[in-house]
Automatic annotation (TrEMBL):
Recorded GO MF terms: GTP binding; isomerase activity; mannose-1-phosphate guanylyltransferase (GTP) activity
Protein name (record): mannose-1-phosphate guanylyltransferase
Organism: Dankookia rubra
InterPro entries: GMPP_N (IPR049577), Man1P_GuaTrfase/Man6P_Isoase (IPR006375), Man6P_isomerase-2_C (IPR001538), ManC/GMP-like_b-helix (IPR054566), Mannose-6P_isomerase_type2 (IPR051161), NTP_transferase_dom (IPR005835), Nucleotide-diphossugar_trans (IPR029044), RmlC-like_jellyroll (IPR014710)
EC number(s) from the headed UniProt entry: 2.7.7.13
Domain of life: Bacteria
Domain Mannose-6-phosphate isomerase type II C-terminal: 347-461
Upper taxonomic lineage: Bacteria, Pseudomonadati, Pseudomonadota, Alphaproteobacteria, Acetobacterales
Gene3D superfamilies in the cross-refs: Jelly Rolls, Spore Coat Polysaccharide Biosynthesis Protein SpsA, Chain A
Keyword Cell inner membrane: no
Length: 466
């Protein structure tokens, strides 16, 4: 089971609510979601059950498809309620099919460098899980980190070599206490990964968080299924308390166990963490994208397209995207969330959205906006189509720059090739289709008194948005 509901705001401006960090390739050429799902290859585990919000459902499906991970299922949360309700939904769903099934729960946005070591730790955890334990993975600390919760390991668990009881969970400590934890050798970082049977999870939720289980059980009873998705009932699910699995169950249960592990784990929870896990040059710098550095050291510099040059900086983070630039000392990396909160208060769309907006059929990207007009670039994946729609306030002009398009306009079907165009007058009923085997790219010029995205009247939609 993969939890993919996070927004990843600490990696702003790359990660934003509309396209968070689990959908980005941060440490390899695969996205974090794809890497996470791929960790089960070579194990006895079934294809993943991914829990995500409705806005990301097609991103999840497409990224699993691209990674050639077949047979997975996607469970849709109508609202974010933290990890306990999400885990309860998956546990109940699987409990109905196979109560003794062992669930391996992971967040979609953590990095793990040593897969053989992970699989070895997983084998130990499965033995304890089948004996009725909820097993977490405790990472051996490499530094007195204050951004992680800690687990104090207790006595060895009988009948499960390499597994220990959890003595207690500890909240994120201050620097002095974190240093004591590392020096003492009994405390581990809490990775947020768990292994347990569906039956154990449901029983412990019933015992310690019955209100969570009650709401989620009703939401599952009211669930609908469309395409490859299981859509939880919204009315019931939103009544579930918003609480983490740690607070709801793990800090209360008498069945908590831990596998101490050294697997090269990082939650990639800040740009400082990204610097730590990335390959560095002789000056300690990490440079990704079109970046030039002069007389600089121990910096993390990433550009998503625009040439970014820095001179004479030390221990600095510089992130450049198409519509935002972030510059800060590396030791202030956790304070990005303060900036995002400030942007939200100012109602800046950059707080939550990228210039490129993803849709089930592909994406669009704003290029130019002026008085009564705007220009967008639209990309449609092979075989996909936009909704049949009309607008009350704008006309549109489409120019194909790559691929082939079929345009439906007021009952007429028009085939467009590269460098051909079509005009869509205000109020006409229209649809765009990519019938080809390669992506379709076109330039859209909108003109009218109002150009907002809510000026769309959907008449028919393949993706259930009508």
């Amino acid at each position: 089971m993969i939890l993919s509901g996070g927004t990843g705001t600490r990696l702003w401006p790359l990660s934003r609510e509309g396209y968070p960090k689990q959908f980005w390739p941060l440490v390899s050429d695969q996205t974090m979601l794809q890497e996470t799902a791929g960790r089960a290859r070579g194990t006895a585990f079934a294809p993943p059950l991914v829990v995500c919000n409705e806005a990301h459902r097609f991103l999840v499906a497409e990224q699993l498809r691209e990674a050639r991970i077949d047979g997975g299922r996607i469970l849709l949360e109508p609202a974010g309620r933290n990890s306990a309700p999400a885990i309860a939904a998956a546990a109940l769903l699987l409990h109905a099919e196979a109560p003794d099934a062992v669930l391996w729960l992971m967040a979609a946005d953590a990095a793990i460098a040593d897969l053989p070591a992970l699989h070895a730790a997983l084998d130990l955890a499965v033995v304890a899980a089948r004996a009725g334990q909820i097993v977490t993975f405790g990472m051996k600390p490499t530094a007195p980190e204050t951004g992680y919760g800690y687990i104090e390991a207790g006595a060895d668990l009988p009948g499960a070599p390499g597994v220990q009881r959890v003595a207690r969970f500890v909240e994120k400590p201050d620097a002095a206490k974190a240093a004591d934890f590392v020096a003492g050798g009994r405390h581990l970082w809490n990775s947020g990964m768990f292994v347990a049977t569906a039956a154990t999870l449901v029983a412990e939720l019933e015992r310690h968080a019955p209100e969570v289980l009650r709401s989620v059980r009703q939401a599952l009873a009211e669930a609908t299924r469309d395409l490859d998705f299981v859509r939880l009932g919204a009315a019931a699910f939103t009544t579930a308390p918003a609480i983490s699995i740690d607070y709801a169950v793990m800090e209360k249960t008498g069945h908590a166990a831990v596998v101490p592990a050294d697997i090269g784990w990082s939650d990639l929870g800040s740009w400082a963490a990204m610097w730590e896990v990335s390959a560095k040059d002789a000056g300690g710098n990490v440079a990704q994208g079109p970046v030039e550095l002069v007389d600089s050291g121990n910096c993390y510099v990433r550009s998503e397209g625009i040439l970014t040059g820095i001179v004479g900086l030390r221990d600095t983070v510089v992130i450049t995207t198409e519509d935002a630039v972030l510059v800060m000392p590396r030791d202030r990396a956790q304070d990005v969330k303060l900036l995002v909160e400030q942007l939200r208060r100012a109602s800046r769309k950059e707080a939550t959205e990228h210039r490129r907006i993803y849709r089930p059929w592909g994406h669009y990207e704003g290029l130019i906006q002026g008085d009564r007009f705007q220009v967008k670039k639209i990309g449609v994946r092979p075989g996909q189509k936009l909704s049949l729609q009309k607008h009350f306030h704008r006309a549109e002009h489409w120019v194909v720059v790559n691929g082939t398009a079929i345009v439906h306009r007021d009952g007429e079907e028009i085939l467009l090739r590269e460098n051909e165009s079509v005009y869509l007058p205000l109020g006409c009923v229209h649809r765009l289709v990519n019938p080809g085997m390669i992506p379709l790219t076109l330039i859209e010029v909108q003109s009218g008194a109002y150009l907002g995205e809510d000026d769309i009247v959907r008449i028919e939609d393949t993706y259930g948005r009508a």
